[in-house]
Amino acid sequence: MSEMKKGKLFVISGPSGAGKSTVIGELMKLRDDLAFSCSVTTRAPRPGEVDGEDYFFIDWERYNAMIDAGELLEHAVFAGNGYGTPRAPVLRLMEQGKQVLLDIEVQGAAQVKKAMSESVSVFLSPPSMEELERRLRNRGTETEEKILQRLETAKYELTLVDRYDYHLINDDPVRCARELNAIINI
Length: 186
Ligand code: 5GP
Description:
alpha/beta, binds guanosine-5'-monophosphate, 5-stranded parallel beta sheet, Rossmann fold, 9 strands
């Protein structure tokens, strides 16, 4: 009897504004065995964001209850908001043979590596700090205070590149998606 091959877990980190969502969007066009895990967050939805698609938007009470119940594979506070990956859907999707992708920040990525050492981690950098700042400002979704906070966090995050299995520089999202695709195929 043939058994379905279990999927792998891929963790993508990189500064806010590095273009992770764009690269992941391009990658989705290249494969049909990819599943994107939907995180929970206490952050308010941005215009156009859909509950259950972009994130599950929850309050701090529910967030803390999920942590206490062990329902999150990893969790971290980023720029004053709580984020976390629900554990059950990730494990289920892997069982179903899907390649599961997590777009999470550095503290959460370290927790995943510790819990699941066979997972593959990829760090996505912007081409430069100047370009990162330009992208964050062009996005127009954050206050000045939040932009400065995200830039400070980015400087710290960029010091952690060496902890990742792979490092990609996003000067072209389509090329980056192809490189990520090659990593998944390894
Ligand atoms: P944003 O608020 O811009 O959507 O995301 C901010 C940061 O939180 C990004 O670096 C993103 O990768 C990270 N993030 C999104 N979901 C999760 C999650 O479930 N866990 C962790 N640790 N980080 C997350």
